[in-house]
């Protein structure tokens, strides 16, 4: 073997890829297609990943922007990012049969918003304007919530009572940037209250910690994920902030440019929480073909959280006596019997 080639290595961050909420949402659409047959309508992208959306489309899922595009009385799945009460109401008006695949961790933030609004707090929602999750959360209490996009937005925040302010956040943000936003908010509003528990989800945090671990040793970090995936985009930022010389976001291995690899000896790989492992495997094959055959997984946490399927789907599957085999991110299978 050429000794120069043998020095090329790949550090694969772990955890990476599918989180429990994405796993649940994707399986919900797959099981709905199996059980009810195509078409099954999905409002927005079920998760922010091009490959997943294309694969489900091929199976008969129909993705729409709004419920008024769904035929009256048809079945529609709400995405993992959550929807506002107004969307639920619009679906009810059209007699749509809904399956709510909102991630339970997003639902938790929705409930926080409702509770703080009922106590008449000004709620500062740290997140990105226009993101589906932010739109859904803000819709729970539009008269009480204002969105704070970044630390630089803090100077423009105005509240009714500085002693009655609380912050909540989108679940897929950069942990470091969010904490900087909170720090500045607390400087402006010293009695700012925290949410009862961390809103940035475990998977987002774990993937960022893993990338921070490998980035200082990497000439290049490749993050597999789509450009509309907030947590995937954040991983590129985290890699650069943590010391990687370069970092790029790709949907597919074929998007990797040969010039990115010039002079590179160590490549780091991670993937967003909506990315199936098959796409990471393709990147590893691409790199192996170019001499990066020494692969090491660097694990900073182990994840075993699983969520039950949406109750509407679970009830119908239970009636028919069906069981669900849930794929696990480590490749194993755990059988979930739908009796609960």
Automatic annotation (TrEMBL):
Summarize where isopentenyl diphosphate binds, as residue positions. 48, 81, 131, 229-231, 274
Q: What class of enzyme is it?
A: oxidoreductase
Q: Which reactions fall under this protein's catalytic activity?
A: isopentenyl diphosphate + 2 oxidized [2Fe-2S]-[ferredoxin] + H2O = (2E)-4-hydroxy-3-methylbut-2-enyl diphosphate + 2 reduced [2Fe-2S]-[ferredoxin] + 2 H(+); dimethylallyl diphosphate + 2 oxidized [2Fe-2S]-[ferredoxin] + H2O = (2E)-4-hydroxy-3-methylbut-2-enyl diphosphate + 2 reduced [2Fe-2S]-[ferredoxin] + 2 H(+)
The family database entries (CDD domains) matched by this protein are listed as: lytB_ispH
Which coenzymes or cofactors are required? Answer: [4Fe-4S] cluster
Q: How is the cofactor bound here?
A: Binds 1 [4Fe-4S] cluster per subunit.
- Tell me the domain of life: Bacteria
> Any idea which residues are catalytic in this one?
133 (proton donor)
Pathway named in the protein's UniProt entry: Isoprenoid biosynthesis; isopentenyl diphosphate biosynthesis via DXP pathway; isopentenyl diphosphate from 1-deoxy-D-xylulose 5-phosphate: step 6/6; Isoprenoid biosynthesis; dimethylallyl diphosphate biosynthesis; dimethylallyl diphosphate from (2E)-4-hydroxy-3-methylbutenyl diphosphate: step 1/1
- The positions annotated for binding dimethylallyl diphosphate are 48, 81, 131, 229-231, 274
Protein family (similarity comment)? Belongs to the IspH family.
**What role is this protein assigned?**
Catalyzes the conversion of 1-hydroxy-2-methyl-2-(E)-butenyl 4-diphosphate (HMBPP) into a mixture of isopentenyl diphosphate (IPP) and dimethylallyl diphosphate (DMAPP). Acts in the terminal step of the DOXP/MEP pathway for isoprenoid precursor biosynthesis.
Q: What is this protein called?
A: 4-hydroxy-3-methylbut-2-enyl diphosphate reductase
Q: Which organism is it from?
A: Flavimobilis marinus
